[in-house]
Amino acid sequence: MKTTSTDRRDFLKKAGLLTAGFAFLQFPVWAKSIFAIDYPKHNIPEEKNIDPQWLKSLYNRGERTAYLKSRNELRYIGMPVGGLHAGTVYVGGDGRLWLWQIYNETFEGNQEGIDPKVVNWNDGTSVRKIRVRDGAAYVEPTIAGNKRVLDQGFAVKVVINGKTIIKELNEEHWEEVIFTPAYPMATISYHSKDFPLAVQLKVYSPFIPLDAADSALPATVLRLEVKNTTNSPAEVSLIGWMENGVNKLSAKEGAGKRKNEGSSTANSSHIFSTFEGTEELAKEIDHGSMCFSFHGSNAKRYAAFQPWPVNEQSFKTLVVEQATAMAPEKLVGGIGTTKNLAPGKSVTADYSVSWHFNNANPKLKNLVKDAGEGYQYGKRFKDAKAVSVYLNDHFGKLTTTTELWVKTWNDTTLPHWFMERTFLNIGTLATANTYRFADGRFWSWEGVGACAGTCTHVWQYAHAVARIFPELERDLRQRVDLGLGFKEESGAIMFRGENETHPAIDGQAGTVLRFYREHQMNADDSFLRTNWPKIKKAVEFMLAQDKNGDGMTDTPMENTLDAVWEGEIAWIVGLCIAAAKAAQLMAEEMGDKTFAQLCETYVANGRKNMEKELFNGEYFIHRPDPVQGRKKLGSYNTCHIDQVYGQSWAFQVGLPRVLAKDKAVAALKALWKYNFTMDVGPYIKTHVGGRPYALEGEGGMVMNTNPHNESQPFGENVTWQLGYFHECMSGFEHQVAAHMMAEGMVGESLVLTRVIQDRYHASKRNPFNEIECSDHYARAMASYGTFITACGFTCHGPKGELGFAPKWNKGDFKTPFTTAEGWGTYAQKKTGMKQLHSLKMSYGELALQKLTLERIDKGALKSVTATLDQVKVPLSFKQQGEVLELVFDKKLMIKENQSLNLVFS
Prior knowledge:
The protein has 905 residues and is α+β, with helices and mostly antiparallel strands. It has three domains: 5-48 and 412-791, Alpha/alpha barrel (Glycosyltransferase); 88-96 and 148-403, Beta-galactosidase, Chain A, domain 5, CATH 2.70.98; 794-904, Maltose phosphorylase, domain 3, CATH 2.60.420. A hairpin with a 5-residue loop joins strand 23 and strand 24 (564-565). Helix 14 (505-520) runs parallel beside helix 16, helix 16 (570-589) packs parallel to helix 18 and helix 22 (730-742) runs antiparallel to helix 23.
């Protein structure tokens, strides 16, 4: 969240909390009641009134999500389908591409979000102006039809039984269009009674977990398939088109000309798009090149193509290899192919769009010096045609492996909706929210174009990246957190790198935990060994914030709620305890016994005192500073969403418990009781000032509530940040859902995750854009943590350790998993008196020394047999309660397409 005073004042004004004067805040009449004896009553119902049948359905595999034209569910859909850090390209509900935020124009203040507009929202007391960073796209979602900056599309012609039928892949041309998401791939099917063949389009960019380079191509693949489902032969003609988008924003009349050039090889055809103009235009952010390609043979190229309206003549356009158009005239290129289809046969046409815009926003260059040399894809490829040639040369590997991942991710017994919601937020990496500069540095806003500097106290929630592209997180730790953002003399980590001048306590602690996670997601201990001296300093800085030595951080320091809270704050205390535990384990691995003991003592003292002093018998609180008291903003005796965040983090990296289970569960139950509601409407109407991230009729977990109806629950001198307390921010909700899942509160976890899924249903807004401070907010990638805990997944790459402990359906469970060097599928099943477990590697390899599983039924297991591709593997086995621990005599190397099978008797 942004912390400048200008933005704070602006937010406060727009929230209706500030009327005049900066030195002394003057509150409007309704706001005065917030700080008086008649503070709004807590009005979240204890009884949630959840339909038992609906709750039961959440556990089931169910059906894949599908959005239909007939239900008016297509207009808001925008799935990111470009490469990582290559700008934003959306595929819409009918398969057409839109948005085209590939020009690097996104920047804080004037080009935030996917649509830089202010909207009106009635918060129950007044109509407020809502900016992008305050949830504009939540209140008024952007409609695809209004943001098609460039013309792009497909048409299909069928000649069958003497009849010619032509349709565009546009929802207006079909009776039914069905959009089926499986991020990173969207599948769109088209249906009409007057069109006898089956038409399907798959849209995605190469996306290969653990391969950050080939997942970051500035390109989109469009795989069009037409199948003859009739008993008659048919002639099928396909044509695709793409507008030359070079200098689309900057080229005015007389500024130069657009140019399209056709070319081909034995297995590809290309329309290469450029712009010829002045030297000044060559410096613009939208100057570069594009390429529209067909990956196959026997295609016709049209450097100039005028498809509208699409008719028979459109398919008879003469082949033209070069064409120009004076700015601002539009220039469109097309590529077509024709094939005769016997009954039952199909044709697949693989197209792609690639782009190359390497001029960084001048404002970004001033903000981050690394942006000065452009982007990594700009360094890797000369132009968009070079991107397309690379894509074509490796087309089989890139597309097959992407589709293998989609198949692997969805080859599971976990619910379709759950797999969709916990994974899709990683699409943030494929938006204008993230960048990778020419020197390889990864950098991000918090949300698209808002709040600079890959903020530690936001990104620490985002578990997805470290599990899917761990090299990005490792580089960020080394290059920024222990590099340009690190203070050698103190060990402090600037929480926005060079874009900030001080640390944040939660960001510091969370980053220590991330050091441990990045170590676990590495194949060996090189990351930890290389960085340990600086990691140790960072831990020492964190430990030093406990001034009285009781293991509870008590130094006033900024946190993710953009304020400096004073006193002993449960969620920050607990987070530091978890970080100290991670530091202890890292120190032990590095042989630093003295430091390990120091951390262990801190953890023991902190846990004892936190449970004694900060637990009120029902939940964990914020104990005021003994001198300041409750004068300043804080959570105090209220019920705060992150109160046991440290224990939540511990589950993500397989730490021993850092809080007693009974107290942690009590805190989660209090959050369910006091903060969660199936309808936030009554609450946000009375507790005003928050941003609209959940609206009337929608469920959610409110950030901070006052269940005991204290008169001044958040302090005497409340500031603008109070508005946060009344919001439902999905990243925090996902964090709680992940923790609930880990503690066995499976139903509550599923409900909380499902209400977020329902808030982002395509009938209401874009399912692929979870919003906090602007669009595609990074914290929402916390959703992957709920998948981790649902599987009970743990791993430690350097030690060769892996573990699974599914939270339901244990007798027949299957899930994908990723490790440091490979990914695949884990399954367990109860069969008679035996239980079967298997690990199959679909990609890469897995070095395995120790495997930890669970007993499916009660009782003791007497023996286990392990085979790797039918070859028996020697091991030792012990059971401790429900935990089954297998240690292999020699470290196994399970390679691609190999399976490890275990039979327990």
